[in-house]
Amino acid sequence: MSRELDVVVVGSLNVDLTAGVHRHPRQGETVRATALTTGPGGKGANQAVAAARLGARTALIGRVGADAHGQDLLAALGADGVETARTLRDESAATGTALINVAETGENSIVVAAGANAHVSPDDLAAARPLIDSARVVSVVLEVPVDAVCAAARAARDAGARLALNLSPVVDLPAEVLAAADPLIVNEHEAREVLQRNGVQLPGEEVGYAEALRQVGARSVVVTLGPRGAAVTEPGHAEHVPGAPADAVDTTGAGDAFAATVAWRVGQGDALAEAARWATRVAARSVQQPGAQPSYPKLADVVS
Ligand code: ATP
Q1: pLDDT for 63-98, tens place per residue?
Q2: Distances, alpha carbon 7 to alpha carbons 52, 194, 271, in Å
Q3: Whose CA, among 117, 123, 182, 260, lies 20 to 30 Å from 167?
Q4: Of 26, 60, 63, residue with least CA distance to 46
Q5: Which of 102, 251, 288 maximizes ligand 1 atoms within 8 Å of its Cβ, making it the mutation to test the pocket?
Q6: Ligand 1 centroid from CA 46, angstroms
Q7: Looking at the predicted complex, does its ipTM rise above 0.95?
Q8: Is 147 a catalytic residue?
Q9: Using a 6 Å CB cutoff, which residues line ligand 1?
Q10: Which of 250, 258, 278, 288 to mutate to test the pocket of ligand 1 (most atoms within 8 A of CB)?
Q11: Rounded to whole angstroms, how far apart are CA atoms 72 and 160?
């Protein structure tokens, strides 16, 4: 079967309303923003744009509202060459919205209103089957309903495509979906949560989280560790891939860029650690610019 698409992403699209702040507000406190910007975001859209910008042939399965924000998001995807034939316009919901605060340290905090993302359904996945049938990798993120995630995992299996599962935010998934993840990609907080939910003892060092997560059932695992890079494990190989050096100004969307790059590279035949090395370079570039999608590099920026 020909694989015309490198990466089919299943996930969310949000408009990002981003406030710069000196520091994050404490509970009950109001702080002044130093800047406010509106831009395209959502973990699914971020991943799709990050992959497309690296040259991957990419499609996105998801939903926006039939409003101006949705229009803008589709236009942004189109500008990066992402296939949006199965990115539906939902008449009954607003476009998903993320309220993001970025502190001077570069650390962010985010509140997400799901809007149309909450309507992504197994029927959407069934209608998108021709896309999935032509994909090397189906990359799934968790800002869409669990039944849609399960449908995506089943469709990937039936199509013979590899499943990359970015379990962010963490939800409980059927064991067979976790077992199909190759790789499961989580940050260290998410890793801890999955291990705790499954009653697995936390290793003393975060680099041990990846191996521990294989006890939960994933075939291969990547745990991202912020500036320290990522811990990677697949059958027969475990490695700590160090972070690429960067002067971080805004880490928003770094995890999405990382996950997209891993999905693209494993689809090109890279071993997981090699894919993660690519991803640390791409994500390190992204943290040096403000915003999520605006910060993602082109291939030429990361190949020296
Ligand atoms: P975010 O929620 O900010 O998108 P995340 O919490 O999902 O990110 P992180 O582990 O913080 O995930 O970051 C993902 C990847 O981005 C890391 O594995 C690393 O490669 C890169 N990265 C993040 N922060 C830095 C940094 N300060 N310097 C260099 N690389 C970084």
Answers
A1: 999 999 999 999 999 999 999 999 999 999 999 998
A2: 9, 25, 17
A3: 123
A4: 60
A5: 251
A6: 14
A7: yes
A8: no
A9: 108, 187, 224-227, 229-230, 243-244, 246, 248, 251-256, 258, 280, 283-284, 287
A10: 258
A11: 33
Whole-prediction pTM value? 0.93
In a domain, 139, yes or no: yes
Q: Which domain holds residue 47?
A: 5-13+42-95+117-303
Longest dimension (CA), the chain: 57
CB 144 within 8 A of CB 11: yes
148-157 confidence digits (pLDDT tens): 999 999 999 9
Q: Is residue 27 part of a domain?
A: no
Segment 216-269, tens digit of pLDDT: 999 999 999 999 999 999 999 999 999 999 999 988 899 999 999 999 999 999
201 labelled as ligand-binding?
no
* Residue entry with tokens 């698409």: 5
In a domain, 112, yes or no: no
Residue 304 in this model has a pLDDT that exceeds 80: no
How many structural domains are present in the chain? 1
Q: What are the distances in angstroms from CA 104 to CA 42, 98, 111? A: 22, 19, 18
- Selecting among 182, 256, 270, 301, the annotated active-site residue is 256
**Quick check: is 18 in a domain?**
no
How many other CB atoms are found less than 10 A from the CB of residue 79? 11
Assign residue 181 the CATH number of its domain.
3.40.1190.20
With a CB cutoff of 8 Å and minimum separation 6, the contacts of 76 are: 40, 45, 49, 293
